[in-house]
Structure formats: structure tokens, C-alpha cells
## 1
Amino acid sequence: MYILAIESSCDETAAAVSKNGREILSNVIFSQAEMHSLYGGVVPEIASRNHTDAICPVVDRAIVESGIKKSELDAIAVTYAPGLIGALLVGVSFAKGLSAALGLPLIPVHHIRGHIAANLIAFPELKPPFICLVASGGHTLLAEVKDYTDMKIIGSTRDDAAGEAFDKAARVLSLPYPGGAMMDKLAKDGNDKAYRFPKAEVSGFPYDFSFSGLKTAVINTVHNCEQKGEILDREGLAASFCRAVADALVPRAIGAVNEFSPDNRVLAVAGGVAANSVLRRALAEECKKQNITLYLPPLSLCGDNAAMIACQGYYEYLAGNLASSDLNGYATMSIEFTL
Ligand code: KG4
Ligand code: ZN
């Protein structure tokens, strides 16, 4: 089965073709990051306009690079939630038009379910159930993936997502948006004990996260340093920050495996922050100690892409989760919910 997928939930216009879900025939990503870096973050209206300009050439290229003809496609999958509403609507409208024109079924795909499916592409042997740690620019959560389209949230962030905290910390260090990867790079030469940052716990909710205090602590550290005329240890700050994020994510992810999946000890990781080298190393070390099988997708599948949407779209199709021509986009939507 050939699925063409479209992703436009934030600042990447992406299209991909998959064969029977996990085999990716093409994966085209047009990143708008450079256009938004001028403003220090994604400007929703600019994102929508850029998606409108990019979507035709991106989809065309995905079909050409897949080596199959448009007439061989079996279904169109599209990210319908969550994300920037104007951005989502560009992809949703385009997919609805294409599915009507080609007479193909339309598959609505939840963006975070897509991120989780990046693991299914990278690791053909991986099958639910497993626990997944999702850390992206807009979301940070722990999910019990009971089946391909049946997921339960174990815990999530009460305020900022991990990626958002990375981007804000990078911004105060005058690094361009999106700053996560640059923070990671800067941290490589730093002492992760150079600065002490607060650890947040949500009383009574051991699997929930909070990153806003950490974000504020970084901003205050930089400002205090400037006011006192001291020299900031930028590398040390980046390393201490990466360590603080890993310290928040890793114990909760391990705890979730131990509590919710003690016999089937499998942890997958997803989202842009899953590319972070400090986090990857910490997860690998801890999972080894605790006898947990760890799945870390390659960096190319951690960030936003349409291959993950095409893969998840296949499983949504098998479960009968299809949309009609009145499909809408939604800025927020739980991964537990099926349209
Ligand atoms: O999953 P994603 O591509 O988009 C969303 O769905 O939000 O995640 C983007 C986030 C950004 O905040 C970016 O700074 C962060 O992932 N990121 C990283 C790294 N690479 C990307 N954060 C930490 N370390 C990295 N190496
Ligand atoms: Zn994403």
C-alpha cells in the first residue's frame, strides 16, 4: 500500500511516500527555520504563507523521488493536529483537495503519534506495547503505546515543553532559532557542573514535567552575570542546562517503564529533543543499567518530517481511522483521542 503524507503543523513543509507503512520511498522536508530565525521564533502568519508557497513543489518532489506514479497511490495522510492552526490548515486543505481529485481515502494523523512512529521506521522489529518519551518543541510527555493507535498519557509537561526551554535558553545566549541543536553543540566543550539549576517536581504527579522554572533560572543567570560585569561560561551553561533537562526526562522515563511495563522493558524516544546528545547518552547508560531495551531514532527522523506521518497513517488506515471532506485542523488534541 502506497501512502502520500503531508506535514505542515509548524515551520516545516514536508511530504513523503511510504510503502506498507514502514518502508519510506521519499521524504522531502522544506524547513522555514531561517525565515523565522530573524524573529527569534516561529511567526504563525509567516509559517502559513510559506507553507502555501512550498506545498505544491514539496509534494511534487516527494512523488517524483518515490519512483511511483500518482495513479499508484492508495491513500493521502495528513497531520490534522496539534500545531499552529493556520499552518495545519494549509496541509489539511491541500490533502483534502488531493484526495478528492484522485479519489483516494484521507487519513488524519496526530502529529505526536507521528513522532512516535519515527521509531517504527527506524526499527522494523519494534512493535507495541512500549513506553515512549516524547520531547519536542511543543510537547513533552510520557505515553504508554498499547497498540499502534491506542495510546495513554502517563505524564506531560505542566508548562513549557523541553524544546521550548531549549529554544528560550539558546535565545538568551544569542544563538539563532531553533537553538536546541546549537545548545547541544556548545555543551560539548562545557562543564555540566558549572551552574546549578532547579529541579521541578509536580507534587502527587511523579510523571509530570515542568520546565518554566529552569528556563527562568537560565535567563536570570545570564542577566545577573551581565549586571555584575562577570564573564559568562557559555559552554558550562549550555552543558549544565542539557544535564538539567536530561535529569528531568531520564528518571521519569525509566520510572514509567518500571511502573507501567515492568515485564516488557522497552523504551522508545521521539521528538526534536530526542536528538540531544546529552539526553541520548544518559538514556543509553540508564537503560543499560536497568535492563531496558532502548530505541533512539536517527537524528534525521527526530525532527518534523512527513515520513513519520506516512508510517503512522498506515496504521490509522488499518484501524479504519479515516476522515471525510469535512476534516478540520485542531491546534490542540490529545494523543489518546482518535477522530
Ligand atoms: O519535534 P520537533 O522538530 O518539532 C515540534 O514538533 O515541536 O522539535 C523541535 C525542537 C526545537 O525546540 C529544537 O530546538 C529542538 O527540538 N531540538 C533540540 C536538538 N535538536 C532539535 N533540542 C536539544 N538538542 C538537540 N540536538
Ligand atoms: Zn514535531
Note: The mean pLDDT is 97.
## 2
Amino acid sequence: MTLSTTRGTTVSADDAARVIVTNGGTPLKGRIRVGGAKNAALPMMAAALLTDEPCVLENLPILEDIYVMVELLRHLGAEVDLDTTKHRVRIHAKDFDQRSAPAELVQRMRASFLVSGPVLARTGEMETPAPGGCKLGSRPVDVDVRGFKRMGANVFVGDGYYSMTAPRLEGADLYMDYPSHTGTENLLMAATLARGETTITNAASEPEIVALGNALREMGAKISGLGTPYIKVKGVERLRGFHTSILPDRLEAGTFAIGGVVTGGEIILDRVNEHDMAPLTYKLREAGAEVWWNDNAMMVRAGHTLESLEIQALPFPGFPTDLQAAFAVLLTQAEGTSRINERVFNDRLRYVSELQKMGAEIHLVNSQEARFTGPSRLRGTDVQALDIRSGACLILAGLVAEGETRVHEIQHVRRGYEDIVGRFQKLGANIQYA
Ligand code: EPU
């Protein structure tokens, strides 16, 4: 498979098992354009299963996870035309060949569970294994499954798989014990074709969910309350196709912004939504960095010092759990004692041991809390990407460290960042595949 086809180096997956970052300490400088958000693209692709009309998504990020979703949609019977050069996908789910998702795809990515709501709502049947994905601690799907049951589905839970049937889903009052991101998306999509009204209380309010909801509205869905913990959906008989552009990836933007600050550099990120970046903007400023906005361009410049601070990773608009690993690199360079409290996942600080190998002074209080004493002198060595965001964190650490940092298992990072190497090179980093 060929990757990263449009924005920089073209590499084959086999040739690119690791990246090497050398001469860390070079300040990042320059300007790059932020791509479309993976975590909005995946549910929006699944939403195309709700209609027999074609759906087109522009500004699609070209990533491993997108290829997995393309395969899954094709397996179900949708026609999928993926144009990697134009960053566009056209999906036409006229009919279904299958109502079951194959284990080899579902185990590669948790977001594959997102096809369950649409397939169940449109066809009345769905079979799927429990999803895999990044290992961040416990990742159940009971919010989704309980919701489907409340909407009248019969759900049989076998050994690691779900079999669901519902001739027609019925609107219901749903209360989510936890504001699950993909759980909210699955139930929102299912409710669009249910008979009657559905309310979702304690819904998640991430910008990607609002973007999905807006695409569903373009399809003719009747939804109110997007971006709040109370979503209301009036079910309709059928939905139309959509043609829409995916919102900018706040996590990609955040990773580059943190990179600019931690290397003492200055960068401009084009096509970023200010509102979506607010939690990070506050914390970068608190750390002493300067952040300005000009329309949809975000300008970030390192301050004279980096101040220690506390991060609480929480659902939006709390600080994004997906950026706490990247921010940890900044905290290794901040003066004094800092703290990260990961309150979304119960095991998302495993990257700490990799940063410790590089010389970071971090005390892991428990699997959800880390204390940093900075600044630490980071030295390059061999480290392992454990998941998408920990891999990005280790690349950032390499951009700060003395000597050569070899980040192994880089395929995890390619699931979530398009051409990360080419784009860091564009900002002046000494980084390459090896
Ligand atoms: N949870 C429950 N019950 C459930 C579902 C979730 O208790 O039924 C708990 C989980 O155990 C976890 C927490 O809720 O502790 C958060 O899980 P959530 O379901 O909200 O996360 P997700 O939908 O699996 C999405 C993103 C993640 C991102 C999280 C949090 C996608 C495809 N994935 O995951 O993105 O970290 O929301 O914002 O949208 C990434 O991009 O690297 C990534 C992991």
C-alpha cells in the first residue's frame, strides 16, 4: 500500500516502520495547512449508509483508518470512489450485500463500530464483533448497545460479538452514563431513521459530533441541541445524500502547535477553527506561549520561558485527551512541577515510560496521573509508538532531544496523521522515515 501521496514523500508501508529524528532543538518555523478531521471523517463516512443516494466528502484526510473504513463500507455493499489526490470520497450505499462486519477490519479500529447504528436503522439487522483500536484502557460499547435496546432492538451478545435486529427502531429517551464520543454518534445516526422522537441526555459535544449532526441535517434529519448535552432527533422516513467538506482536524493542528512552542519556534497553521482550539489555546498561553488568530489561521510563537501547569483531560470543552501526550513533551521542558490527570481513559499514560527512557523526569502516580519535574534534558534513543497519539508525542520529544531519536512502530501514527514526516520537514525538522 502506498501512503502520503499528496503532501510530501511517498512511502510504502513496508519501508516505513520507524522515523528518525536527529538534531532535536531546531526551532520549527513556517506555515502549513491543517487537513480534515479523522474523527469527523469516519462517522460521516458511516452516515452515508443511512441513504440510498450518493454522498460526497471533501477535505478527506488520507490515513490508514480511512482505508479501513473504505474497506468496511465496500464489504457491506457500498460503492466507494476514493480520490486520494483530491482528498475526496464518494459513497453510494444503494443496496447492502452484507449486514455483518468482518472481524479483521473491526478489530483494527474502534470507529468501525460506527456502521452499526446506520446499518441497523436502515436494514433492521446488524452483526459485528466488539471493536478493537488503540489500547487506552477499557473501551466498552455498552452506551451504544443500551441505546439500541431502548430503541427497541433485540440484541444478542455472543462471545465477543453483537447480533442486533429491529424491523424499525423506535424513538426513545436515552440517558448516557458517560458522554461517549462514538456512542453519541452511533445513537444520533440510528435515531434519524427511527419512528418518533429520540432524546439523548448527557450527549458528547465534541466539534466532530456537531459536524456529523450538520451533515445529517443536510441529509434531511431533524436534529436540535447539537453541541450541548441534550440532543433531540425527530425520526424521518428517509434521508437524502450529502456533499460536504470535513472540518479541520483540531488534534493535528494541536500537535503541530505544541511542536512549534516546545522547539522555541514560530508557526502558522492555516484552516483551523478557533472555537475548537480553545482548550489548547488557553493552556498554551498559560505555559507562556503567544497565540493569535487571523480568520482561520492560528499563529503560535514560543515565549521566553515555559511555565509549569496542570492538565485535566476531559470531554470537550475540557482539554482533549488526544493532546495530553503531546502536551506532556512541553511539560518536560517547563520550569517546575506540572501534572497531567487523564480523566477520560483509564490507561492512557503508557507513553510515560518511553519519555523516561529519553531522560524525562516524570513520576507516574497511577495509571491516570503523572507529575513532571522540569526542565529535563531529553536524549535521543529507541522508543516505541504505542498508539496514534503517543507516537506523535515521541516524535515531538525527538524534536527536542539531543542526538538521534528512533521512533518504532510508526504505523500507529499513520492511522491519524497524514504525511507527518513531510509536514514536519516543511517546518524545518530533521526527520525522515527509515
Ligand atoms: N465509555 C464507557 N462506556 C461506553 C463507552 C465509553 O464507559 O459505552 C468510556 C470509555 O471507557 C472511556 C471513555 O468513555 O474511558 C471515553 O470513550 P469514548 O467512547 O468517548 O471514546 P471513543 O468514542 O472510543 C473517540 C475518539 C478517540 C478519542 C475519544 C475521546 C474517534 C474515532 N475516536 O473515541 O480518538 O480519544 O473519543 O475524545 O472518534 C484518536 O483519535 O487517537 C482517538 C483515540
Note: The pocket of EPU is lined by residues 39, 42, 110-111, 134, 138-143, 178, 180-183, 321-322, 344-345, 388-389, 416 (CB under 6 Å).
